[in-house]
Design brief:
By secondary structure, this protein is an alpha/beta fold. The chain contains 4 helices and 5 strands, in the order ββαβαβαβα. It has a 5-stranded mixed sheet, with helices on both faces.
Length: 119
């Protein structure tokens, strides 16, 4: 049985910002809801809050990278926040951490990205 996985969509502080709060492991068993949520999100900037994601498997990592590439091709940005040490280690081992803007909190991400947009 798949581990429980939930996604909550929040609005950012500024227009064009969105936040997806993920809860539970991002694995092959629960990629479909994640992929649908990413496709539905039309904000110019999206932050994926991973603070309640205990681990990501290879399929989940592939889906994160795919989401980044798809958004990047359309001129949209994606950042990660609240990445736990286990997931960060996966990003480092696979050398994918350089793809993502990674912040400690959603607030840090929104602040940095809103300042970058106005610069």
């Amino acid at each position: 049985m798949a581990d429980s996985f939930e996604i909550e969509q929040l609005s950012g502080d500024l227009p064009g910002q969105g936040v997806l709060c993920l809860r539970g492991p991002l694995t092959a068993e629960n990629l479909i809801p994640f992929q649908h949520a990413i496709r539905r999100e039309n904000s110019a900037t999206i932050v994926l809050d991973l603070s309640e994601v205990p681990y990501v498997d290879s399929a989940g990592l592939g889906s994160l990278v795919s989401a980044y590439i798809s958004r990047h091709k359309t001129g949209h940005r994606m950042a990660l926040s609240g990445v736990c040490p286990r997931v960060m280690k996966l990003l480092e081992i696979t050398r994918t951490e350089s793809l993502f803007l990674i912040f400690d909190t959603v607030e840090d991400a929104m602040d940095a990205l809103s300042h970058a947009a106005s610069a």
